Amino acid sequence: MLDLLRGGDSARLFVSSLVGRAPATALSLVLVLRTKELTGSFAAAGLASGSNALANAVCSPVLGRWLDRRGQPPILLVGAVVSALAMAAFAALPHGVSLAAILPCAVVAGAAMPPLGACLRTLWPLLLESPERLHAAFALDAAAIEVVYIAGPVLIAGALGAWSLSASAVACAVLLVLGTVVFATSPSSRGWRPGVREESGGALRAPGVRTLAVVFVLIGLAFGAIEVAVPAAADHAGSQGAASLLLGGWGLGSLVGGLFATRSAAPRDPVGRLCVYLTLLTCGHLLLALPSGLLVLGALLFLSGAVIAPSFGLAYGLVEGAAAAGTVTEAYTWLSTGLAGGIAAGAALAGVLAEGAGPSGGFLLAAFGAACAALTVGAARAALVPTPR
């Protein structure tokens, strides 16, 4: 792993992208807590958080297309400043303010959020020439983001928010600008030039990108179902507070799996390996539906989570070969959008199932999503195999 970060400005890009992505992991919770504090309404808090997520999902591919056309620094820096100003405005709102003043801040903060993860993955192939190092880099990124998703909400929304939720919003703005400035002013980001587009149109015109976007929607469906089914299972067992620990164990499994993947050789058949991982994810989610105690559930969540980061690493590694020239960054953003949409749908459906069938319904939905993702990869194998350029 250290070898990956020694060449050129790899370490600078990797660390700064994690710093810049941390606010995105905490902002949803900050919006919920701060809006509740300002308005006294959880309904308003949910609308603010949901509007932020929806704006980010819709606008991220647009930013990705601009990045592919104009280069990284100008789009990243402008996006970071606009998003940070919206967060700062949200932090400055007084108590008793109406939802009409909160929603524009939430929407602009999400819409302008720079897609640093997509930009980093676009640069990896230029910095790491060998397939083994590139495979390890994608796995490391997928594993490290698990740490950010755990630490970001805890430190920014939890620890700092205990003192001041307004300060949490300001911290999100500062970290976003800091991480983006360090990333965008790096030699690799400044020197990157978008590829020449082969024809007009966006990234989704490539069959491989469409396939991966569908796969990420289905994976998101599984993840959204898990995020509802686990709290339902904890509540059913009479230990509602255990939900965070169980989900933390799920993320820890992904982290451990990703770290192991960084030390494995690049597969000769990444599409086939991805099918295997998604099949294992399906089996793991099926086992979650079996009646068990919370300790067994936690162990099964850890095991099923162990293939998440390796799966993401393999999927990200397929993007450059699947995307048309000049659309790679936009292609990565479509995967994030698909994942977000799938998570929203999975959470909504699992909530309905939890009311009727209990937690097992959500776990079965998760298995269904993972199985469909595996079948999609297998059926569209030809579209995902890189073609020489």
UniProtKB/TrEMBL annotation:
* UniProt name for this protein: MFS transporter
Which residue ranges traverse the bilayer?
Answer: 12-33, 39-63, 75-93, 99-124, 136-156, 162-186, 207-230, 242-262, 274-290, 296-319, 331-354, 360-384
Establish whether keyword Metal-binding is in the entry.
Answer: no
Source organism superkingdom: Bacteria
List keywords of the entry alphabetically.
Membrane, Transmembrane, Transmembrane helix
Question: Membrane: is it a keyword of this entry?
Answer: yes
GO molecular function list: transmembrane transporter activity
